[in-house]
Design brief:
Blueprint: E1 5-8, E2 15-18, H1 27-35, E3 44-48, H2 54-63, E4 68-73, H3 76-88, E5 95-98, H4 104-107, E6 113-118, H5 135-141, H6 148-158, E7 159-170, H7 174-183, E8 186-195, E9 202-211, E10 218-219, E11 223-224, H8 234-238
Parallel strand pairs: 3-4, 3-6, 4-5, 6-7, 8-10, 8-11
Antiparallel strand pairs: 1-2, 7-9, 8-9
Length: 240
């Protein structure tokens, strides 16, 4: 097993602990954190499947004391990387919990959160051809410990009325995402397709939904990753 590496967290002035044997954060997390907006009166943020904590760190960089951020990660080895990352960057305001999203109601027995973010495992367990032999990687990438349906269900139990749910996922699963959001009373508000380059099919989708809200969808300008050297404040550029 390789030892832990410390890498730059893109343009945010932070360092992040990683171990390429089982987990490295990706551009998906950066895009999701940049996609999140904080409306007036919305302060409590919960990040599910936090990994080594890139999303909590970027949200802290963006919003500072305007928000209170809680992150939750299941796997011991990845959670430990997040603890190291937060400590290295002297971020002591993020509440970082080792726990199972399936147990959210035991961890948070009352509705608490105004915004929930998630970069979840992307692949159904049936996608065995994509499954990584490394168990830690497999759990991070595949719906082994939690599937999309239960993730949205659990989110609906701890989010405040009219709270916002923001997620990044594979574009090929957009039908599943919409069905799950509707099943648990989320109305879809914003959607951004993400492409690797011009002429390719969309690889990712960013989606914002509101709990107990109606669908009123704004499809924002597409993001073409090859067009950007920096992803910090990317949606300020996209929305111009």
């Amino acid at each position: 097993m390789k030892s832990n590496d410390v890498n730059d967290l893109f343009d945010y002035g932070y360092l992040i602990y990683q171990n390429s044997d089982f987990f490295k954060f990706s551009i998906d997390s950066v895009l999701l954190a940049e996609f999140v907006s904080v409306k007036k009166g919305k302060r409590e943020i919960l990040d599910l499947c936090s990994g080594n904590a890139p999303i909590p760190m970027i949200l802290h960089n963006k919003f500072g004391s305007r928000v209170h951020i809680t992150g939750i990660e299941l796997q011991d080895a990845i959670y430990d990387l997040g603890v190291l990352s937060l400590r290295e960057n002297e971020i002591d305001t993020v509440e970082y919990i080792k726990g199972d999203v399936n147990d959210l109601l035991q961890i948070f027995p009352k509705r608490r959160f105004d915004i929930i973010t998630c970069n979840p495992p992307y692949f159904a367990v049936s996608d065995t051809n994509l499954k990584n032999v490394n168990n830690i990687k497999a759990i991070a990438r595949h719906e082994i410990m939690i599937d999309l349906d239960n993730l949205v269900k659990m989110s609906s139990k701890v989010i405040n009325n009219q709270g916002y749910f923001c997620m990044v996922h594979r574009a090929t699963r957009i039908a599943d995402i919409i069905n799950c959001l509707h099943k648990y009373n989320f109305g879809i508000k914003r959607l951004v397709p993400v492409y690797d380059n011009h002429g390719s099919q969309a690889s990712l989708v960013l989606i914002e939904a509101i709990y107990n809200g109606k669908d009123y969808v704004t499809i924002e300008k597409a993001v073409y990753l090859k067009d950007y050297k920096s992803y910090k404040n990317i949606f300020d550029e996209v929305r111009k």
